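User: Teach me something about this protein's shape.
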Amino acid sequence: MEGFINFLKPPGMTSHDAVGLVRRVLHEKHVGHAGTLDPGAAGVLPIAVGRTTRLIEYLDNVRKSYRAEMLLGVETDSGDDTGRVVERLDDFAVPTWDQVEQVFREFTGSIVQVPPAHSAIKINGRRACDLLRQGIAVDIPSRQVEIHGIQLLDRDAAGKRLLFDVDCSKGTYIRSLCQDMGRALGIPSTMSFLIRTAVGQFQLGQTVSVEELQELGDRALLKPEVYISHIRRYDINPKRQKAFCNGLSSDDRTLVEGPSLQDNELLRVYAAGEFLGIGHYNGRNKTIVPDKVLKSQS
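Assistant: First, the predicted structure itself:
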């Protein structure tokens, strides 16, 4: 039993709880998830089953997309509306649509942000949120992330709730983004809603809910290679299939045509149309080297 599940995580469920649910439904121990979602958030949570768990690392750098709501006039210690209010401003000039879009443009591209202390980021091997609950102060280092685009979609009649879509790199905290954009507007702000709409090829419209997963069981499993299609496909000589599956490199100079392969480039490796696993190109030896074999050696 192996493959990905495009799981619709509901609010209130942790990513770890989602993994436990899949284990119980499929009676399979080897289950893992890609890209933790905060307990209060909902949306796309890719879950890998069986040998597919070995492919989770290849989802690390794919783009993520979110739909979020930003509440103006309130800032909390957690960055969302579940936290303790640390600043409130009831009387302020509501920014115009153009002013909001200008700030969104300023936060598009490569930016530096400080993740919220109320998060699962590890500090000396312990989660920051756990340390805070024990009364231990934490200092979260800043990080550079990439915001590919932010689009303002709507706002309420008072202009204090802004609905927007954002496409971003891994490691981006939308809670921090809302706080930082609010400060750029001169108004305390917090994230009041979040749903993840995509993780690479995993799309919100194709997710399965808790109830659907319980009904479908292993029929909810998806072919793994489709969801790592950001890695280039490479077909080795079918005569080398067994060798690849046994961890042996293949000298495939005759097949290296078309766009040039780069040294150490990751590849989705196939033989006779069958997905074998992940390898990389050794430019010095001009060989395809196995990294993660999913196909049985038999």
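Now, about its shape. The helical segments are 15-26, 97-106, 128-133, 174-185, 210-216, 241-245. The radius of gyration is 22 Å. If you'd like, I can walk through any region in more detail.
User: That's plenty for now, thanks!
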